[in-house]
Amino acid sequence: MVSWFKEHTHQRSHHYLFPSRNLSSPMPTIQLRPSSARGHGRQNWLEAYHTFSFARYRDPQHNGFGALRVINEDVIAPGSGFGEHPHREMEIFTYIIEGAVEHQDSLSNTEILQRGDLQFTSSGKGIWHSESNASKDRNHGTPLKALQVWIRPSTSELEPAYYTEHFSDADKHNTLCHMISPVGQHAEGTVPINANAHVYAAIVEPGREVVHRVQGMEGKRRKVYVHVLMDGNTGAVRVEVEGGEEVLRGGDGAYVRGVEEGDEVRFKSTGEGRVEFLVFDLA
């Protein structure tokens, strides 16, 4: 898989971290988004955690981040799911943590996807789809655990499109795996998105570190959001920029503001077990 990252072992310095930063620019900041403060809903077939305002959960302080509009962490019971429903003007993907999802849509796509598969829908002018747990045995089946992510497109009235790509655990092992990149800057092996956004995933062992170099244009401010999966592991990750650091555990997120092209955001696994997380690099 294409990756824009490598590990660094040398000493950090202000000059190295931000080689092109205007010294009059404010330093980046990190704001923790603790899992305990997220929205939480439970039905007889669904348990959902909402990072941003969604459905009945409303928090004016957390309505999205740049083009990133929704991060829902869902646990769907066997034999259940979201029935056919419409979407428009949204880029939507499903990141499977455990189990399998059955997808059907009005473009005649029908398939079952498992861990490692990234299912991506560009809803454009309009599309109908359904997403359900592919395990049908309500008594003995496997729950589906997945992230549902929505990103606003930068161009409207596009024709809907559907993509799938596989990114194995090995592709993410102690590195940041580039999964999604913008149309016009599309990186080989990634899924194209109609937004100025890059998405990465990593699975990092204790004591190891990976580094993200912010994408974009020189001098243009960017935002980075980090989300740690609720995967039952004992991992944690320390997120660090020149302006500070935060330690994130399962379900936690962090807003990183004030970064520019070329700035580095560092992620070090500090827990007892591996940690899996997604990184969103946004205009």
TrEMBL record:
Pfam families in the cross-refs: Pirin (PF02678), Pirin_C_2 (PF17954)
Keyword field: Iron, Metal-binding
Cofactor(s) this protein requires: Fe cation
GO molecular function: metal ion binding
Quercetin 2,3-dioxygenase C-terminal cupin domain mapped to chain residues: 186-282
Cofactor note as given: Binds 1 Fe cation per subunit.
Boundaries of every Pirin N-terminal domain copy: 37-151
Domain of life, per lineage: Eukaryota
Residues involved in Fe cation binding: H85, H87, H129, E131
Entry similarity comment: Belongs to the pirin family.
Stated name of the protein: RmlC-like cupin domain-containing protein
Organism of origin: Jimgerdemannia flammicorona
